[in-house]
Design a protein that fits this description.
The protein is mostly beta strands and 176 residues long. The protein has one domain. Strands 1, 2, 3, 4, 5, 6, 7, 8, 9 and 10 form a ten-stranded mixed beta sheet that branches.
Length: 176
């Protein structure tokens, strides 16, 4: 088992989701909740998925620091955004390894680095852009981290969820 990634370049990415709530519970710490939501693996094809075909969806287990877990119920559909964050470490890999059936905090993800004026990391399910003060800082940081276009990074991702609204499937999927 690889050692946990606890330092390196930091990243944060947020992406929109619409999906079915599977579970909403209070965490043992009693300060936040955990929401499990099933979303389409490829939202470009639409937010619907086939519950009998695991290749069409991914279950996201995320922490909810805003107390939506107290109001939402399993079976409802919800709209919100997922926030993924963590540290990046250069690894030897040949391809992106998108999350399997479940994306949760601590999941090891492999992403591809693309450098073209900006620095983008593609994790398959989501992408993140790294921000730098200027070009000189970007060159220095990338050199120190050993990253260049075409290299790969790994992260033990942290996952949070921020729900905007929830209700019946038709209500959630009707609006854009």
């Amino acid at each position: 088992m690889p050692r946990p990634i606890k330092s390196g370049l930091e990243f944060e990415a947020a992406f929109p989701v619409k999906g079915r709530i599977l579970q909403a519970v209070m965490c043992e710490c009693e300060e936040e909740g955990e929401i499990r939501i099933r979303v389409a693996r490829d939202p470009k094809k639409g937010w619907s998925y086939d519950p009998k075909d695991a290749a069409t969806f991914v279950d996201i287990h995320a922490y909810d620091p805003r107390d939506a877990y107290e109001k939402v119920r399993a079976g409802e559909w919800a709209e919100g955004r997922i926030v993924c964050y963590g540290y990046l470490k250069r690894v030897h890999a040949r391809s992106i390894e998108p999350p399997g059936a479940v994306l949760e905090s601590g999941s090891r993800l492999i992403g591809a680095v693309h450098v073209d004026g900006t620095v983008e990391i593609d994790f398959g399910l989501f992408q993140t852009l790294l921000a730098f003060e200027d070009d000189d800082q970007r060159r220095r940081v990338l050199k120190d981290a050993g990253l260049k276009d075409g290299s790969f990074v790994a992260t033990d991702v942290g996952v949070d969820i921020e729900l905007k609204r929830w209700g019946a499937r038709e209500t959630i999927l009707r609006r854009g």
